[in-house]
Amino acid sequence: MCHEEFFPNFIKALPCADIPIRGLNAYLLQGYAQQVLFMTFDSDVEIPEHAHQAQWGIVLDGEIELLINGKREIYRKGDTYFISEYIPHSARIKSGYKDVTIFNQQDRYKTRKETS
After folding, report:
1. Which of 38, 56, 96, 98 could form a disulfide with 27 if both were Cys (CB 3.0 to 4.6 A apart)?
2. φ/ψ of residue 92, rounded to 5
3. What is the pTM of this model?
């Protein structure tokens, strides 16, 4: 079970995504060709540069600094961002950050297997 209180119960009923990032809680909604993640961060996090299929997100709270194809931007509550497919990007995410992110990729993340 993911451990956070921000999202409503019907979101928290979704399976947790298996993403090995300290302080990240992520609920995974699986679509036919895309995945939607409802994420909260309890710690400051740095995500190293990487690339994948297209990604769109909306910031619900907090702050994220994205470096997309060499251009640095800061996004806050209410902002949206878009990363085109296979464009190099990295992130600095502040504790308390919350967002909804859609990946144009059916199998970007797997569900986390719960342990007893």
Report:
1. 38
2. -120, 120
3. 0.92
